[in-house]
Amino acid sequence: MRKKILREVEVDVCSNCGKEDGMSFECFACNFVACWDCSDKSEVMVKYSHGVYHHGGKDGWYCAMCDMRLSEDRSDPLHNSYTKVRSLRETLKHWSESFERSRKVAEAEAERLFDDFDAKRKAGQ
Length: 125
Ligand SMILES: [Zn+2]
Ligand SMILES: [Zn+2]
Fold this sequence. Notes:
Distance between the termini: 99 Å
Number of domains: 1
Strand content: 5-15%
Radius of gyration: 26 Å
Bound molecules: zinc ion
Number of strands: 6
Largest sheet: 2 strands, antiparallel
Shape: elongated
Helix content: 40-55%
Order of helices and strands: EEEEHEEHH
């Protein structure tokens, strides 16, 4: 037998655009909820990776208001740890950029000096 029933379901309503979406992200510090689209906007939600080299299920989500407040008063140990990881990510990025610059200069110099050396060697033969 088949019966039709009305079932009550809870849906997340995006605090930013009002969209009812299956996939949503809740702020770790308040009950602000962002839909998939809005979670991508940095002025709405701030996403933190939990790893320097990776991200995943333990990443952090904070609405822009909480992120600003917690960045200032540093009252949330979890938020503080996410900002540490983010700052290490940035350090790594700067390091690798400066490494790449030094690498290119050093390699170009070695090539140029080798060419000079090689030309002299051939001329001396
Ligand atoms: Zn939305
Ligand atoms: Zn919040």
